[in-house]
Amino acid sequence: MTTPGERPERAAPQPHAVVGVGLVVLATDGRVLLGQAHDGRWELPGGKVDPGEGFERAAARELAEETDLRAAPESIRILSVQIDSQAGVTRLTAAAVTTSAEGVPAVTEPHKIARWRWFAPDEIPSALYVPSAAVLRAWRPDLTTLPPVPSYAYPLAGPGTAP
After folding, report:
1. CATH code of residue 146
2. Is 161 part of any domain?
3. Which DSSP state fits 97?
4. Model-level pTM?
């Protein structure tokens, strides 16, 4: 019950979407870091955005949790937001990139990832999880070896560009 002047609280809505981020980690020579899952498919570091987090902070946290690499959130650039669906759930995935990751990749979640490996862009395997393929396409739409993905990309305007 509320007292006069108080706003009644509403019940929390049921979630209808999952919000995440996929991070393209570039080495100084231009290679891209991918993790191989136990089913043989490859994926970028990334994952769900926690409540109160922005995409950059989530990307930095997921990178550290999954690979033991470190990147400051300020060194991560958001390229676009991808929308797709999986099992009837809408997924919003921010496509992000960094060239400032420090450390050596390590398998920190062996129940999810078997190994991390660096790939030249033209050697990225086609056996990719859909969100990772969509993020890689946002980063390099010219890569013809990437599989087609059923997603919608919403590129973000960069500094100094007209809306």
Report:
1. 3.90.79.10
2. no
3. E
4. 0.86
